[in-house]
Amino acid sequence: MGLSKQKNVVQVKNLDTLFTANYPTRQRHGRLLPTSIRCIITGSSGKTNVMLSLLIDKNGLRFDNIYIYSKSLHQPKYQFLQRVLETIPQVKYFAFKESEEILDPSQACENSIFIFDDVATDKQNKIKEYFSMGRYKSVDSFYLCQTYACIPKHLIRDNANFLILFKQDDINLRHIYDEHVGTDMSFEKFKEMCADCWKEKYSFLVIDKEISRRLAEADVDYDPFTEEENQEIQTEKSFQQFRDEYQAMIKRDPERVDEFLEQYDMTPRVYIDGLIPDTTGEYDTTTGVHFDPVFNKLKLGNSTLDIDGKDILVDGIRYNGTAGLYELIFKSKPRGYKKDDLDRYRDILNSTNVHRRGYDPKQQIKGNKGYKHVHIINPLMFRSRASTVTGGIGGRGQQMQLTNIPYQYVYWNDVNELVDRLKLLIASEQAGHTGHNNEIASIIEELKESGVI
């Protein structure tokens, strides 16, 4: 096949620049999101949680109005969202159960979010209009559906510019690849990337089809979040009020709290019931459990904490849920715990890294002078066992001797004390005193494990 350039040509110019040259594109939402959004959220579970997170997070959506068309408006999360929004006059809330009730895009209020949830079997004409015309009224559309292939391709899938994908089967993944990835990478590479993203439960992959254009058009001298610009859409103060009110109502709503607590046995219920409304500092907010109100989950750092009967599961690892272990995990000044509880708590600290900066195993332990850090966490992390030498054994094939001499445990309240002890032992050894090798080696090992050296 041959191609040839024509002598006569028609110059196609970008006329958009004539209208936008003196008016930089305003970033309506958080920097991670497109200015105009036509989003599909698909997967078996987790969709509503992500949607609500986009509504309440400071880096999420900005809006004056929320429209929801859903057959599942009865679910607690939407009912609770409605109760929250009713207390905030700056944000309007409109809900529809039937497709005939939906407003035409031309009648919708500007700077709005429209959520279409669980409506794949209903009439799609109005939804298609919003996905194709909503951007002209600054209405951002979100389509939530379990199965990607069930979403109409014409005008909805074809117009989507932002996709949030929970775990998919190969059939749906192939549709997504063909329609939104294509020549960017091979299908096998795309599957590999998705599998890596979906290793953890409720994790998801985001495809932002406009990020390259946003980066290319970015103006480093233009700040889209000045107070003046934000007032034209919605003040940050209003959004902060919305987020604060949402969190506060979750905590003080008796029905929601009671519903949440009913799933637990008596021992964990006592601690969780005290955690949610705590204002006295009795509960540990630095390395202890916190309640994630959006996901209705207990968290320990970045790790999920589940309770089965009395047992505690941290990222799926089961621990015997004694009263002492609950004290250590929840309280600022734990009491009534035993050595077995301390051993289990140390294992939990090492698996969650909740005591380290950024919950990162490679980072240092947090500098904290609170009771729990000084008297429990630091001694557990910097504990050094002094080896007991019972006599020399020479020759090949030597074996460790068992003795009745108990192990001696040395506790350190601060890493600096451990370093000072190491300096003292080295100085003593240089002065000719022997017998410190085991303790020196043990301290060095502790410092390595703690990320100090």
Question: Could you walk me through the main structural features you see in this protein, from its secondary elements to its overall organization?
Answer:
The chain is an alpha/beta fold and 453 residues long. The chain has 3 domains: 28-245, Rossmann fold (3-Layer(aba) Sandwich), CATH 3.40.50; 253-377, no CATH class; 384-390 and 404-449, no CATH class. Helix content is 38%, strand content 14%. It contains 17 helices and 14 strands. The strands form 3 sheets. The protein has a 7-stranded mixed beta sheet, sandwiched between helices. A 5-stranded antiparallel beta sheet has the order 8-9-10-11-12, with helices on one face. Strand 9 and strand 10 (303-308) form a beta hairpin. Helix 14 (339-352) crosses helix 15 and helix 16 runs antiparallel to helix 17. The longest helix is centred in the middle third of the chain and has 17 residues, at 236-252. The chain is globular, with a radius of gyration of 29 Å. It starts with 15 loop residues before the first helix and ends with a helix. Residues 282-381 form the DUF8207 domain. This is Poxvirus A32 protein. It comes from Popillia japonica (Japanese beetle). It holds the Pfam family DUF8207.
- Secondary-structure arrangement, i.e. CATH architecture of the largest domain: 3-Layer(aba) Sandwich
Number of helices: 17
Percentage of β-strand residues: 5-15%
What is the CATH level 1 assignment of the largest domain? Alpha Beta
What is the name of the CATH superfamily of the largest domain?
A: P-loop containing nucleotide triphosphate hydrolases
Low-pLDDT segments, ≥5 res:
219-236, 384-410
Q: What's the quaternary structure here?
A: single chain
What distance lies between the first and last C-alpha atoms, to the nearest angstrom?
66 Å
Largest sheet, strands/sense/barrel: 7 strands, mixed
Helix/strand class: alpha/beta
Q: What overall form do the CA principal axes indicate?
A: globular
Give the total of domains.
3
- Strand arrangement, major sheet: 3-2-4-5-1-6-7
